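Reply to dn_fold:

You asked what the input looked like. This is it:
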Amino acid sequence: MGDRKGPDWEGFGRHLLEDWPVGDIDGADLFDAALKHGLIWEIPGGYDPDQHIDAEGIAPERGDPWYEYAFSGPDPVEILTARVKELEQALREVREEICRGPVNDILWHQETPAETTVDFITNTLNDNWSYDAWLSREAALAKGDAL
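and this is what came back:
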């Protein structure tokens, strides 16, 4: 069984390759291999609804065996959320640059009926942006009006 020094990734990989050279991996065997090589470990005292979250919906009862990952790293959801925010900001900046460019800019040409690149960006961002509102804001800024 794995210890709390950290997972034995190489041993886990070798275990999988030796046991399943072809075909699907059985879930129970995969679990046992993860436990054996320290990727997960059993929590003393088992499941405690006051401390553990049943994210998988298995409905354990207090004291049932409970396992946690023996490794950590950046939360993938946080990483993806941050990346989505970066990409959304990039789209906003591209849309702004397109709008500041010449009206006959190729990016304004319709790629499909009634859809421009700005429309595609706005639909992707789903932010209710409108060109008319943008023009009004730009006109107010040019006059020095605060919005």
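The chain has two domains: 9-69, 76-143.
Hope that clears it up.
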